[in-house]
Amino acid sequence: MVQMFSHCVLGSVDEMDLDELLSTKLVTFMMEHHNTIFQVPAKLRSQVQEHLSHLKRAQIKYAGSDTDFSASPAFFKQIRRVESEEQRVIGTQTPLQALLEGLIADRELPAKDKRKRLKQFQRSYPDVYNYRFPTEESKAAALPEKAPRLKPHLMFLRKPFQPFQRSWSFRA
After folding, report:
1. How far apart are the first and last CA of the chain?
2. Where does the source fall among the domains of life (predicted)?
3. N or C: which end of the chain has fewer CB within 10 A?
4. How far apart are alpha carbons 121 and 73 in whole angstroms?
């Protein structure tokens, strides 16, 4: 039996990997000493037991503690779909409105960057933006005005228009 099952026990990919006599002796040795070969080391066993006992101690709940929820089951009040939608909208609208107000009130942000971020906010959250700025007047009151761009009058420094004139002719 040992000779027949030695190939299965050793699981060699190459059939010629081990000599038949050597494989038979190896399987016989494993059968005789199976208790010591497959025994879990004592140090590992003690470490696992300590860890498991620590986990059990950490999960003990004392009566009357703040985390003891087993005494009274918790029930939730069922609400209608409309109320749920209103709570969802309010829950998201309020932080977005606070973000918009923070953008408007930021004094350290340059005017160009502020306008750019407000345009981006308007594209991303048009409802919140339109709620805050219902009219152009309210928008103009809160946003910094664009400074008019002054162009230097360089027209008088230019030379008058001169058509292209050839001074050399490269044709022969």
Report:
1. 109
2. Eukaryota
3. C
4. 44
The DSSP secondary structure of the chain, one letter per residue, reads: -HHHHHHHHHT-SSTTSS-HHHHHHHHHHHHHTHHHHSPPPHHHHHHHHHHHHHHHHHT---TT-TT--SSS--------HHHHHHHHHHHHHHHHHHHHHHHHH-SSS-HHHHHHHHHHHHHH-HHHHHHH--SHHHHHHHSPPPPPPPPP--GGGSPPP-----S-----
What is the C-alpha separation between 105 and 99, in angstroms, rounded? Answer: 10
Sequence-separated (6 or more) residues with CB below 8 Å from residue 143:
104, 114, 115, 118
Would you give per-residue pLDDT tens digits along the chain (172 residues)?
Answer: 887 777 777 776 665 666 788 888 888 998 899 888 889 899 999 999 999 888 887 666 666 555 555 555 556 777 888 888 888 777 888 888 898 899 888 888 888 888 899 899 999 988 889 988 888 888 877 776 666 666 655 555 555 556 666 566 666 5
Tokens 């400074």 found at: 147
Q: Residue 57 region, left (φ>0) first, then alpha (ψ -120 to 50), else beta?
A: alpha
Question: Which residue type is seen at 93?
Answer: Q
Count the residues in the chain.
172
